[in-house]
Amino acid sequence: MLIGQLKRWLQDHLTDGIAIIVGSGLSAQMGIPSMLELAKHIEANPPALTALTYPQWSRLCDELDEGHDLETALSTVDFDAGVEEHIVDLTAKLIEEQERPVFRDVVAGKLKLPFSDLLRHLRVTASAIPVITTNYDRLIELACDTIDLAVDSTFSGQVIARFDPTMSRESLGFAAHTRTRKDIQRKYRQHVRLFKPHGSIDWYSHNGVPVRSGLPLPLPRLMITPGKTKYVRGYDQPFDAHRNGANEAVDRAARFLVIGFGFNDRQLETHLRPRLKSGQSCVILARHLTPNASALAKSCPSVVALSSGAGNGIEGTLLTTKGSEQFYPTVRLWNLANFLEEVLG
Q: Do you find a cis peptide bond into 210, omega within 30 degrees of 0?
């Protein structure tokens, strides 16, 4: 396929009915810690250890030192609740620290988020574009704010917002006259429906009630770490509602755009994988394809993966599809900013 043909196909893909899935790769491009950086940070900052928790922490460090990724390492240990809370707190504070300069630069006009440009190009209707992310950070919310695009976050309120999916949705509605101006009908602002099935750094538990706040509150964080407890805590609220909402969005979508997601989350992929294997169209953007993502692209009839590649000493984009690979020199279509510039101009 010639590069011009590929670009035209990609343009046609970014139409109605799209669902977007975002992984840590997109945030890493903006300076948010990658899973590898997070693993190093956790290992370097142990909690106050006891005779009970020392073996747990030692096992985690051994797994990381042997080269296992963070999720694999965390899956091998049954952590004490206090150790798990420590890992969540370390994760949240590191992300908060790295988010701050990104927020400042965006507000000051020194930095533009590629995700904002993506949303500008897509046709956002009152039925909303679903965005599903495994990330804890708030760059997607920031990207929406910078282009005045509303977000249905399932929380309702301002400084301390309570988990209330109905009120969150209804807050985006307004009364409008019909064309004849004889009747009033309910309409909704253009918006993104955001699903964060693993939680967010601004989610807390307040007296047993999930709340959302941009303030660093002295409350337990609602974040699910990779590992054994993910499949247990995932059925608590608000995680359960976000996972179910994400699955429903996947079931309804006509096509998918996957950005920086490695396909290493079985819980999140329960509905996604069958749809891709049945032939649903999907574009994957990733600097490096994980083995799972590569295998999926090579086995599914309508999955197109764009990743970093090189040939004859020239960097470019590697196109991976079922039964074939093709290299395009000099272009970096795997990078969202370059993708938008090259494909949508």
A: no
